[in-house]
């Protein structure tokens, strides 16, 4: 008995830009109802591969074949997506092959409501009236688990949470019940519980609709949980593919083994006795609230409040890391901003024995002791400033008497400390980063930009770094490198860290103590081993079980 023809069969796919190949003659196929994960680091070619199937990559030179169609699929006879006229391909996009893009906030139109954007797809692809299309959009939002779907349909993208926006993108992609769904990093920016919910949602919808899924990701935990087969890409080459269980249990290619072995490794100073009374930050009964409008007549006379952090207390000893974990909206980033003196708060919060003041001028001395590394280095580094200007900025504020030569020497040392010196790599003749000081952020990879952000924070010799999701936007291999860098800096300099994250693996690798937040409250706290190995609170058990 012959096996049925695949829904999609890609043969010798190559993609090039201006004559430079980024995907090199790859072959893969997807059966109807199958879930295939395409994994690799940033720059491996996986997203370009997916986008090229629908010819959505501008100025790309595409060669090869992509045969789409099965006996029960639309269209009836297999067609080569690369040779179809644009008008014929347009009828396949969104109807037979749909796509979930990586970042819904940029993929969704900010000027139209969520319901209108979904209804537009239904109206164009299925020819329904505007009223019926909107009714179907509301039903799709409900099917993807959005509560109060009728109300949310009239919301704009900025009025929804990250998880709700991602669900809206899924609803839009599924509007015409496609045969193949291309999901490009659908859970990258989501916390662990939302990630699990989106995966469960995709699995349920895939089973119900008999849909095939091509999942683009660098998250191996996600692949283990979701996919049937996995294909591994490195530098545009497909180096290995097979059943998930088989590839993970017995990887054949060195690059696959490297990806699997890239789980964060714990390498922190353990067991050192804390010195009584010596801490770099102390917080006692911290409360942060935002004013909100009260609807109706009562709102004319007073405003309400939303309490983002409720009665949080913690201590960060010298040379130790306190991890703060929780899902989106738990209050962990608000707590970080209060710890930086960037939000008004009630209670007691001291850095190195000094309290934050409401007058900015009085906080200058504390700001030298407490620095921050943000989640997305690309948005936190000015695109108009050179590397030298970015890194030396703190010296201009806190050590204005230094000469230009002294500042440059400090900048070069800070960059060398984070592995970004201009010197040659061991065994290489060419400089690792020629002309480094005069380069701009866009000329570096995500991991390199994060190293620049760390160098900027370190140059004024702080005692505490607030790390707000410092690796969530990075590939697993780059994440491991950045965490190893932070661990080394802590050992060498005696730095303390306040680590904000939703990744339990990062907490295990970096933290000495951990607090778990939910809905603004600290629900559990203690040593990393005690909290993560024997969680007492039901919410903590859910977080740990998701990993």
**Average pLDDT score:** 85
Strand content of the residues, in percent?
15-25%
Write down the overall geometry: globular
Largest sheet: 6 strands, mixed
CATH names the topology of the domain at 279-292 and 301-382 and 463-546 as Rossmann fold
Give the spatial strand order of the biggest sheet.
Answer: 6-7-8-3-9-10
Number of helical stretches of at least 4 residues: 21
Helix/strand/pairing class, anyone?
alpha/beta
- Count of strand segments: 20
Low-confidence stretches: 71-75, 424-431
Q: Report the CATH architecture of the domain at 279-292 and 301-382 and 463-546.
A: 3-Layer(aba) Sandwich
Quick structural summary:
This protein is α/β, with parallel strands linked by helices and 547 residues long.
Report on this model:
Helices cover about 35% and strands about 25% of the residues. The model is unreliable at about 70-75 and about 425-430 (pLDDT under 50). Strands 6-7-8-3-9-10 form a six-stranded mixed sheet, sandwiched between helices. The protein has a six-stranded mixed sheet with strand order 16-17-18-13-19-20, sandwiched between helices. Among the domains are: about 100-175, no CATH class; about 280-290 and about 300-380 and about 465-545, P-loop containing nucleotide triphosphate hydrolases (Rossmann fold, 3-Layer(aba) Sandwich). Helix 18 links the parallel strand 17 and strand 18 (about 495-500). With about 550 residues, it is α/β, with parallel strands linked by helices.
């Amino acid at each position: 008995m012959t096996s049925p023809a695949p829904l999609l069969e890609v043969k010798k796919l190559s993609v090039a830009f201006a004559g430079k190949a980024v995907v090199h003659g790859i072959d893969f196929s997807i059966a109807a109802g199958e879930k295939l994960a395409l994994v690799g680091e940033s720059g491996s070619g996986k997203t370009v591969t997916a986008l090229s199937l629908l010819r959505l990559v501008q100025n790309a030179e595409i060669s090869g074949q992509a045969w789409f169609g099965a006996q029960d699929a639309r269209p009836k006879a297999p067609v080569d997506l690369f040779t179809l006229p644009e008008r014929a391909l347009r009828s396949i996009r969104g109807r037979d092959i749909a796509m979930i893009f990586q970042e819904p906030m940029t993929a969704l139109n900010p000027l139209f409501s969520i319901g209108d954007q979904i209804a537009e797809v239904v109206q164009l692809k299925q020819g329904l009236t505007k009223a019926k299309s909107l009714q179907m959009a509301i039903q799709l939002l409900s099917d993807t688990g959005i509560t109060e779907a009728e109300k949310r349909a009239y919301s704009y993208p900025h009025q929804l949470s990250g998880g709700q926006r991602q669900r809206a993108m899924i609803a839009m992609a599924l509007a015409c019940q496609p045969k193949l769904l291309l999901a490009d990093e659908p859970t990258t920016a989501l916390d662990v519980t939302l990630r699990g919910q989106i995966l469960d949602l995709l699995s349920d919808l895939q089973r119900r609709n008999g849909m095939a899924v091509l999942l683009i990701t660098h998250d191996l935990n996600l692949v283990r949980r979701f996919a049937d087969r996995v294909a591994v890409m490195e530098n545009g080459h497909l180096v290995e593919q097979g059943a998930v269980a088989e590839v993970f249990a017995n990887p054949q290619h060195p690059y696959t083994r490297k990806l699997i072995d890239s789980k964060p490794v714990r390498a922190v100073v353990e067991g050192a006795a804390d010195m009584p009374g010596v801490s770099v930050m102390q917080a006692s009964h911290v409360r942060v609230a935002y004013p909100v409008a009260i609807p109706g007549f009562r709102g004319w006379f007073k405003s309400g409040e939303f309490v983002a952090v409720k009665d949080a207390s913690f201590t960060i000893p010298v040379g130790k890391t306190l991890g703060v974990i929780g899902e989106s909206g738990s209050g962990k980033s608000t707590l970080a901003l209060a710890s930086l003196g960037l939000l008004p708060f009630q209670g007691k919060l001291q850095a190195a024995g000094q309290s934050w003041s409401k007058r900015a001028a009085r906080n200058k001395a504390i700001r030298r002791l407490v620095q921050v590394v943000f989640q997305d280095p690309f948005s936190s580094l000015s695109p108009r400033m050179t590397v030298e200007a970015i890194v030396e900025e703190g010296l201009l504020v806190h050590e204005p008497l230094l000469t230009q030569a002294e500042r440059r020497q400090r900048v070069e040392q800070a960059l060398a400390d984070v592995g970004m010196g201009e010197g040659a790599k061991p065994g290489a003749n060419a400089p690792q980063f020629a002309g480094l000081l005069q380069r701009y952020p866009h000329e570096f990879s995500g991991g390199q930009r994060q190293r620049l952000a760390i160098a900027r924070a370190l140059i004024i010799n702080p005692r505490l770094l607030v790390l707000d999701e410092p690796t969530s936007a990075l590939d697993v291999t780059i994440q491991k490198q950045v965490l190893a860098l932070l661990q080394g800096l802590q050992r060498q300099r005696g730095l303390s860290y306040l680590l904000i994250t939703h990744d339990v693996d990062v907490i295990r690798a970096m933290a000495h103590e951990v607090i778990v937040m939910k809905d603004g409250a600290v629900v559990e706290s203690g040593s990393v081993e005690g909290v993560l190995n024997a969680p007492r609170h039901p919410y903590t058990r859910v977080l740990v079980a998701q990993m």
